[in-house]
């Protein structure tokens, strides 16, 4: 796929997984055309992949031209005047609207300088129609007159009103939604925050022709804001990556950024990071001296560096939360409370038990207010009832917090954390060996990665790979590939279209791409219906990627049924059940 809106993830090939979320929200966007989708909110802490997901949804929607106009806006952190904010918000929408209507993606990345002048926007809008030019002129007048109430209403409602007037559909993707109520100021000197700016969406969010998909990094803060808009937003909590996707992410970083990693170390990294994309990225890119991610000891050293050293990016991520939150809530006793909950993170603690265990000099009502502030700061989470609390269920937070503050409270030996990781690794290692069979015949990302890794080097040993594959055309040649990875995107009527192998040659002329399917199953051969479905996948992928020269390839560890072989041979699809694909 092409990248139209620049993604913060960097190399777009690093985007991994989120298959459940992509499938759900692409279908949700598709249903906007029927006005059947309700405004939704995704809640999750910082650096858990929300922005990557939202930006990828924008790019997929724009690329597939699904009949829904995508609009993406990130509310910036830092105080700004409401008039400047409204102008930036409005012109960002206008330029993305023009980009979609003209199919000219250069408008998406329009510079901040261009968004300072309405005259530029009016000139560019003529490509779409005079109705858009007139709309821009009306908003420009409100900006010059500084009629804040009317201005915010006008720019906020432009997406759904334009859509209604022209029988269109829009999806409004607004990232860091909570900053609407904390960073936008009534006065030009930015001293008077408008604490209820987001409340305007109580009405706007109900329009089904332009519903919102919002997100925020401060879960407690955003939750409180959305609770005031009862019934306007459906809430969704971004879950950690499933195990197979977390392992795939480790292998992607290893391949794309040339970081040596062993299979067992990849499993330990994925498990210890608990499926958190930011933690996986931090370990893979860590500046730990002598970093070695091929051994258990090397992974342990890197984890210790990331959670205890001042240069560790995981430590600094949580440090930002803690240093922002603790002074605002009067940190006296807060450290003791958090440490106590960390020590008992496997259970929920009653408010009265906290008072008793820590001998806190405050009433239960005072403690309740303090706990509410800790929840808003995403440092503590509420339990089954408002009187129960639990530490953030995050292995890394526990280590970072104790490393930062345990010495202030009691004796602390950093070796404790290393010993805890060693014990955790022993449990992980046992599980890894349980799922590890002969030739690494485990399910999921390990087998796929091994096959993908081999394909990347096939041009260096063409005779060996020709011997490992049946039904290859005699003239076929393995070449250097631009990328070899799984493919995930959208096709007409299929928001969850995916292919296990997509190998695109570096040289487009005279080289053949590979579209592949991997079935690493016990006692379950590749069947005729699966072969027929795979033929359709090949045709769809060629159409999506505009590739005319491609060959299909199926690897099935348990072999093939006779009907499947008939279809594969008839359509010149290569196939293999050679166990060498799974060997180191």
Name the CATH superfamily classification of the largest domain.
Answer: P-loop containing nucleotide triphosphate hydrolases
3D shape: globular
Runs in which pLDDT lies below 50 for 5 or more consecutive residues are: 438-442
CATH class of the largest domain: Alpha Beta
Question: Care to count the β-strands?
Answer: 15
SSE arrangement:
Elements: H1 19-32, E1 40-43, H2 50-64, E2 69-74, E3 80-81, H3 82-102, H4 118-125, H5 130-145, H6 148-165, E4 170-175, E5 184-185, H7 201-204, E6 212-216, H8 219-227, E7 234-237, H9 243-256, H10 263-272, H11 277-284, H12 296-308, H13 313-328, H14 334-343, E8 349-350, H15 351-358, H16 364-376, E9 380-382, E10 388-391, H17 395-409, H18 415-435, H19 445-456, H20 462-468, E11 481-491, E12 494-505, E13 513-519, H21 528-545, E14 550-556, H22 562-570, E15 574-576
Parallel strand pairs: 1-6, 1-7, 2-4, 3-5, 4-6, 13-14, 14-15
Antiparallel strand pairs: 8-10, 9-10, 11-12, 12-13
Helix pairs in contact: 1-2, 3-4, 3-5, 3-6, 4-5, 9-10, 9-11, 9-19, 10-18, 12-18, 13-17, 14-17, 21-22
């Amino acid at each position: 796929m092409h990248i139209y809106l620049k993604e913060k993830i960097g190399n777009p090939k690093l985007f991994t997984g989120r298959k459940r979320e992509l499938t759900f929200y692409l279908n949700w966007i598709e249903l906007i055309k029927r006005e059947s989708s309700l405004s939704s909110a995704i809640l999750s802490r910082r650096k858990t992949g929300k922005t990557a997901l939202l930006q990828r949804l924008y790019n997929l929607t724009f690329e597939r031209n699904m009949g829904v106009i995508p609009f993406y806006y990130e509310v910036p952190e830092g105080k700004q005047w409401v008039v400047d904010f409204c102008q930036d918000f409005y012109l960002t929408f206008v330029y993305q609207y023009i980009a979609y209507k003209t199919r000219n993606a250069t408008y998406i990345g329009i510079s901040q300088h261009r968004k300072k002048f309405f005259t530029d926007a009016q000139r560019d809008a003529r490509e779409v129609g005079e109705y858009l030019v007139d709309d821009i002129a009306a908003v420009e007048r409100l900006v010059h007159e500084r009629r804040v109430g009317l201005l915010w209403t006008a720019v906020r409602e432009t997406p759904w009103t334009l859509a209604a007037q022209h029988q269109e559909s829009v999806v409004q993707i607004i990232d860091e939604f909570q900053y609407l109520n904390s960073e936008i100021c009534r006065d030009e000197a930015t001293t008077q925050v408008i604490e209820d700016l987001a409340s305007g969406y109580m009405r706007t969010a109900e329009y089904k022709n332009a519903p919102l998909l919002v997100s925020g990094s401060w879960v407690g803060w955003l939750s409180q804001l959305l609770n005031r808009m009862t019934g306007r937003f459906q809430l969704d909590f971004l879950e950690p990556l499933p195990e197979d996707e977390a392992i795939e992410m480790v292998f992607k970083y290893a391949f794309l950024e040339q970081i040596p990693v062993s299979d067992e170390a990849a499993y330990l990294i994925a498990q210890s990071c608990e499926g958190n994309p930011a933690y996986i990225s931090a370990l893979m890119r860590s500046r730990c001296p002598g970093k070695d991610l091929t051994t258990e000891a090397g992974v342990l050293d890197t984890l210790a560096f990331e959670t205890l050293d001042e240069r560790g990016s995981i430590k600094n991520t949580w440090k930002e939360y803690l240093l922002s939150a603790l002074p605002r809530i009067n940190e006296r006793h807060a450290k003791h409370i958090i440490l106590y909950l960390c020590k008992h993170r496997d259970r929920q603690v009653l408010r009265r038990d906290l008072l008793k265990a820590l001998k806190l000099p405050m009433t239960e009502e005072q403690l309740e207010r303090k706990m509410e502030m800790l929840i808003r700061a995403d440092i503590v989470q509420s339990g089954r009832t408002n009187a129960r609390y639990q530490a953030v269920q995050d292995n890394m937070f526990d280590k970072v917090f104790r490393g930062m503050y345990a010495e202030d409270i009691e004796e602390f030996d950093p070796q404790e954390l290393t010993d805890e990781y060693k014990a955790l690794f022993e449990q992980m290692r046992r599980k890894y060996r349980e799922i590890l069979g002969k030739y690494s015949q485990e399910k999921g990302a390990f087998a796929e990665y091994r096959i993908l890794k081999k394909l990347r080097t096939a041009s260096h040993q063409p005779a060996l790979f020709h011997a490992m594959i049946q039904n290859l055309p005699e003239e076929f040649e393995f070449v250097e590939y631009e990328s070899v990875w799984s493919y995930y995107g959208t096709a007409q009527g299929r928001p969850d279209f995916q292919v296990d192998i997509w190998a695109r040659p570096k040289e487009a002329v005279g080289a053949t791409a590979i579209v592949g399917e991997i079935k690493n199953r016990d006692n379950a051969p590749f069947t005729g219906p699966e072969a027929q479905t795979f033929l359709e996948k090949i045709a769809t992928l060629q159409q999506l990627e505009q590739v005319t020269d491609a060959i299909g390839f199926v690897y099935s560890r348990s072999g093939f049924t006779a009907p499947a072989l008939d279809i594969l041979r008839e359509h010149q699809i290569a196939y293999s059940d050679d166990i060498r694909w799974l060997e180191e």
